[in-house]
Design brief:
Number of strands: 13
Structural class: mainly alpha
Number of helices: 31
Helix content: 55-70%
Strand content: under 5%
Strand order of the largest sheet: 3-7-8
Radius of gyration: 47 Å
Largest sheet: 3 strands, antiparallel
Length: 802
């Protein structure tokens, strides 16, 4: 605790010392301090281009002729134009920037992300695992208990069906079954059950019982209308085929015999054919049935057939096969009797008896089915529920794939563009461009930006050398310092940690904080954040699945965690940012905050930025790295404005919230000290700008780039806007005047890109680089300089928009 208090005290002292130093350089300071030649108290006059050159400004025809038609970097142009459009509120510029960005996307060679490899889906799976397991377990218990209740309802209503016998009329059997099903459905409908189970059982029960009783009902209707045994047998055979009824060999033989009897009956036309049909009928009956069917109808015929053995009966059935024997029999006694009875009556009797026999068979089979209807229903429900529960447990294992497939269908592709490569600057810059140009309608980009945050995190190097957890939740929560080491060593085999890679990582994560901020409206509000897991899952319903897959409050927490990892790295001994004492000795922020560091005698007022080589700071500080780092830190500061209103769970941790708020304060201080370095060490008395300082040799390299002047102006205005300290604004104005004096070309009617390189045209990107960086200075200029500013840029800007 003492250490923490001492560090806090150091920070307060540090802030006071730096502020006092800077304020001593401002116009509000004492007269003696104002006399210091290196500090401008009042900006010198701007150069008048009109007085120096004849027709110094480009008209539209000139810009159309000399503005390069081909773009060198569409993505950068889009980013710069977007920045200008946002500053001046120019919707045409914003639309043009979006158009340029879309063109750049078409030309980009990208790599694809397979949804199965999505790190964000892994995170969703990790976050949902416990709740999903618990939910599935509760669902299983509820489903099994409710299934027992459903079985009780079925048992309570099965009494009447169990009383059905083969003697029960066919129509009555079906009526009893229908009533039983209606009662079961009604009671289930009015019983409080697990909703999905009730819906499933009602649907399946209705469908199953309808299907079970469909064939018997159709058979009943069909048999009611038949006239011949042949028709009845045809209906019965179709029933057997449709219902895939398994027949015993005896059943098969009986059906074949009945079919043969029907054909013989249909063919009755004389006594001989009538006797054949009767003999066939006789062969199919047992002794008792023969008495009932034959003796009661014609005792003489009964006695005649009773005296025949099986061979003789078969002879009669085959009609003409028996020759003389059959003819004698017919003529002697049987034929006259048949003739007297009538051939038509014989046909009718056989058909009626046969149809009654078929009906009895069907009635018996239906009775067996109806008496076991309740058992059959329960068994089918058991099978269905078992499959459902098995599917639920399989669902848990397939959760990520199911969500991935649903998401792929929603965003329109299963392989969105990842644009990941080994150049961290380009990787983060591309992602930043996507975030800057984000549209509420572009669901693919919204998803891939969230995915990129986690994919890029995996590319970073944690500060510690201890084994790293593969659990994404753990990594995000740990907030361990992380930096981005260039994956390819230089020609000497040195491992380089580039300052610009760290800056661009912070730029991207900060831009994502802006786009995901849950305390204000952003494109994500009407985009992918509206989807919940239940949108993609039909297997079962759950409150857990109705939570957003992309909740802004949690996503902004994730972006904040990743930005914090980069920021924390900048406060370690591996940081590209360092403090400078009055002798330009470098002091890491980590060292400065250590308990044994003497901050009283080692006063620091400047800070600079350098690359690291094999983990050690190089001796050179470059202007481009410093201005980019200031822009990145400023963006984080702006992006987190309002963070205290966030509903993010991660920010509910008081320690983290305090850490974020303190980081915002520290960023202002770092930007201030970086601004001091530019204005005091990279700008000389004549307001010339230097691009590099070597601390070893103390050699400064002057810049001949107008873009670097413009970026320095922008960086100093960033420091001024954050601190309100005038020195940064005055230095920025002086640099703008130097830009006009040294770089403006009356031939090109614009700023030369370089003082040492010839150019015949003006590149589009160069115009945008300069304008986007110096546009902020305009409001601080005098009225004459503002008019000159507009004359310089207006037609070049118009040509770009055309």
């Amino acid at each position: 605790m003492k250490t923490a208090k001492k560090n806090l005290l150091k920070f307060v002292i540090f802030t006071f010392v730096v502020s006092a130093y800077v304020l001593s350089c401002s116009p509000k300071a004492q007269e003696a301090e104002r006399a210091k030649p290196e500090v401008p108290m009042v900006a010198t006059n701007d150069v008048s281009l009109v007085s120096l050159y004849k027709k110094p400004f480009a008209d539209f025809q000139f810009t159309e002729k000399y503005l390069a038609k081909n773009s060198t970097d569409l993505k950068s142009e889009a980013l710069l134009l977007m920045k200008i459009g946002n500053v001046v509120g120019d919707e045409i510029a914003v639309d043009t920037a979006n158009g340029l960005y879309n063109q750049s996307e078409e030309k980009t060679v990208s790599n694809k992300l397979n949804m199965a490899d999505s790190q964000y889906l892994v995170l969703i799976e990790q976050q949902s695992d416990a709740a999903l397991s618990s939910g599935l377990d509760e669902t299983e218990k509820t489903v099994l208990a409710d299934t027992q209740r459903i079985n009780m309802i079925i048992d309570q209503n099965s009494g009447p069906t169990q009383m059905v016998t083969s003697a029960t009329a066919f129509a009555l059997q079906l009526s009893i079954a229908d009533q039983m099903i209606a009662n079961v459905l009604h009671q289930i409908e009015n019983t409080e059950l697990f909703p999905e189970l009730k819906t499933q059982v009602l649907a399946e029960l209705s469908a199953q019982t309808t299907e079970q009783l469909k064939s018997p009902k159709e058979l009943s209707v069909q048999l009611a209308g038949v006239k011949t045994l042949t028709q009845a047998i045809a209906i019965l055979k179709n029933y057997v085929t449709v219902n895939q009824t398994v027949l015993t060999p005896e059943d098969v033989q009986d059906l074949a015999n009945a079919e043969k009897l029907g054909k013989l009956t249909d063919n009755i036309h004389d006594g001989e054919s009538a006797l054949a049909a009767l003999a066939m009928a006789w062969s199919m009956l047992d002794a008792e049935e023969r008495k009932v069917s034959f003796k009661s109808a014609n005792e003489e015929l009964y006695d005649f057939l009773r005296k025949k053995d099986d061979k003789e009966i078969q002879c009669l059935i085959r009609e003409k096969s028996c020759g003389i024997f059959k003819k004698i029999v017919l003529k002697v006694g049987v034929f006259p009797a048949l003739k007297d009875y009538g051939l038509g009556n014989i046909q009718n009797d056989i058909n009626a008896g046969g149809i009654a026999g078929v009906t009895a068979v069907v009635q018996t089979q239906c009775a067996l089915q109806i008496t076991t209807l309740g058992t059959q229903i329960k068994e089918k429900i058991k099978v269905s529920i078992t499959e459902k529960l098995t599917g639920l447990h399989e669902f848990k294992a397939k959760f990520k794939l199911i969500i991935g497939d649903g998401l792929a269908s929603t965003i329109g592709t299963n392989t969105p563009d990842l644009f990941e490569n080994d150049d961290f600057e380009q990787m983060f810059k591309t992602a930043y461009n996507q975030a800057e140009n984000l549209s509420p309608k572009n669901l693919e980009t919204q998803f891939i930006l969230v995915e990129k945050m986690l994919q890029f995190m995996k590319r970073g190097t944690p500060l510690t050398s201890a084994p790293q957890s593969e659990d994404i939740k753990t990594v995000l929560k740990a907030n361990e310092p992380r930096f981005y080491v260039h994956p390819t060593p230089n020609e000497n085999g040195d491992v380089i940690t580039r300052a610009k890679d760290q800056a661009w990582s912070l730029m991207f994560y900060s831009k994502m904080i802006q786009q995901l901020a849950d305390w204000k409206t952003t494109p994500y509000d009407i985009g992918i954040t509206k989807y919940v897991a239940q949108d993609f899952i039909t297997e079962f319903q759950s409150e857990e699945l109705k939570k957003q897959l992309f909740p802004k409050a949690e996503l902004v927490g994730m972006a904040l965690s990743l930005a914090a990892q980069t920021l924390k790295q900048m406060y370690t001994d591996k940081s590209p940012i360092y403090l400078l004492d009055k002798n330009n000795n470098r002091v890491s922020i980590e060292t400065y905050l250590q308990e044994n560091f003497d901050s009283t005698s080692n006063i620091v007022v400047h800070a600079a930025v350098s690359d690291l080589q094999n983990g050690v700071l190089i001796d050179k500080a470059r202007l481009s790295d410093i201005t980019l780092m200031m822009e990145a830190m400023s963006l984080f500061y702006k992006a987190t404005d309002g963070i205290d209103k966030s509903a993010s769970e991660s920010l509910k941790d008081p320690a983290l919230r305090t850490e974020v708020l303190n980081a915002r304060k520290q960023i202002r201080l770092v930007i201030m000290t970086l601004g001091n370095f530019i204005s005091n060490q990279l700008v000389d008395k004549e307001k010339n700008l230097y691009t590099e300082l070597n601390f070893q040799t103390e050699v400064k390299v002057a810049t001949d780039s107008s873009s670097e002047y413009a970026r320095a102006i922008d960086a100093l205005l960033t420091a001024y806007n954050l601190t309100g300290i005038d020195i940064y604004k005055f230095t920025a104005i002086e640099l703008y005047y130097t830009l006009n004096r040294k770089f403006y070309s009356p031939t090109l009617k614009f700023y030369r890109a370089s003082l040492t390189k010839e150019q015949n045209t003006v590149q589009r990107q160069h115009v945008l680089e300069v304008l986007s960086s110096v546009i902020g200075i305009r409001k601080y200029l005098g009225i004459t300089s503002q008019i000159q500013f507009d004359r310089i840029f207006e037609n070049w800007y118009a040509s770009i928009l055309m």
